[in-house]
Amino acid sequence: MVLIIEDEYNLADAIASMLTAKKYDVLIKTDGQEGLDEALTNIYI
Question: Global pTM?
Answer without folding.
Answer: 0.88
